[in-house]
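Private note to self, pasted from the team thread so I don't lose it. Backbone tokens:
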């Protein structure tokens, strides 16, 4: 993995999933650190989400210690009040003849959108603060639906290490084991998968899944699946059958340089998923928690700053991720469009 501090830094000028929409009710605010920056998320009484820098411009008091009445955030120190777009709308200590001075004050706001039931925040680089951001990338096949289920966990890992776990097929048989299914390690099989470059990443080509797999039979006939990975750290799986479909998004949001939040959201037209939601929620949590516990243990080793290896085709996708990340950083530094450097390729590994 790259050791240079700048290469390790999380990418800016990207949308990051801040919170599943259901976790932020109208009139509620929520403090969060995103890429090391204090962010105040909120949802206005009318339903629109917003994101402000969580520091009062007067004396730097965190705004989340103040109040929100659904239309304005009031600082808990001297009562300055801010609209959801960051404009200062009141400075109570100013005499009435100087009230207009307040309108020139702003808290920085972050572009914030709710799409497909998730709230995303755009984290710009210093040079791009005023530019209009691109659209939030929509998940193919999820329509306007909200997730059937979502699960968010914090890992004690930097964003690069968390991204590695997303695209590492070799840890599954050793980490994601269950008391009722301990065969995994004895059952390693050779896999061969075809990959091709895709926008801001790559994808495992769409292929038909075997009929023997009972879970896939729920989707009907001619069931196909496609898995794609894209910067700054998302894995998207789309399963499509002639009766039903499902989309799963696993995405990472760097909080600090030592902590990363992993969000898993699942959309599906399968009616049974609503019925088994409590069970599914527990399984999903358990799966993500296995990686969290792994990260906690791994941290003991990483504290000694060991050299790390990326070996063979099982680690090829991690190598691609770091290559794409470097290309993004170079393109930004040179002020040119990003050029995907990957080529179509088949990978073989045992898992
Ligand atoms: S610090 Fe916020 S109003 Fe003074
Ligand atoms: Fe994992």
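Design output:
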């Amino acid at each position: 993995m790259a050791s240079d501090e700048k290469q390790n830094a999380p990418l800016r000028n990207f949308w990051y999933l801040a919170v599943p929409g259901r976790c932020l009710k109208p009139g509620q605010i929520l403090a969060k650190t995103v890429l090391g920056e204090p962010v105040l998320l909120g949802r206005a009484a009318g339903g629109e989400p917003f994101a402000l820098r969580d520091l009062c411009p007067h004396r730097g008091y965190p705004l989340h210690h103040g109040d929100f009445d659904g239309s304005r955030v009031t600082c808990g120190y001297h009562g300055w009040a801010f609209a959801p777009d960051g404009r200062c709308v009141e400075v109570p200590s100013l005499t009435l003849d100087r009230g207009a001075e307040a309108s020139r004050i702003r808290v920085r706001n972050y572009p914030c959108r709710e799409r497909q039931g998730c709230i995303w925040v755009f984290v710009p680089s210093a040079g791009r603060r005023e530019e209009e951001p691109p659209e939030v990338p929509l998940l193919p096949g999820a329509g306007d639906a909200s997730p059937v289920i979502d699960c968010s966990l914090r890992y004690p890992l930097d964003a690069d290490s968390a991204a590695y776990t997303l695209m590492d097929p070799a840890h599954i048989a050793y980490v994601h084991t269950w008391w009722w299914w301990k065969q995994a390690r004895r059952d390693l099989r050779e896999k061969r998968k075809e990959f091709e470059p895709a926008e801001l990443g790559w994808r495992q080509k769409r292929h038909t899944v075997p009929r023997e797999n009972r879970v896939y039979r729920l989707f009907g006939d001619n069931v196909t699946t496609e898995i794609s990975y894209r910067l700054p750290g998302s894995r998207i799986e789309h399963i499509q059958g002639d009766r039903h479909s499902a989309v799963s998004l696993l995405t990472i949001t760097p909080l600090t340089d030592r902590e990363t939040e992993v969000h898993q959201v699942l959309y599906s037209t399968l009616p049974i998923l609503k019925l088994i939601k409590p069970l599914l929620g527990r399984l999903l949590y358990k799966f993500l928690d296995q990686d969290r516990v792994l990260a906690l243990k791994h941290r003991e080793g990483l504290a000694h700053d060991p050299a790390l290896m990326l070996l063979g085709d099982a680690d090829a996708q991690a190598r691609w991720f770091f290559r794409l990340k470097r290309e993004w950083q170079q393109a930004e530094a040179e002020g040119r469009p990003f050029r995907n450097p990957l080529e179509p390729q088949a990978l073989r590994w045992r898992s």
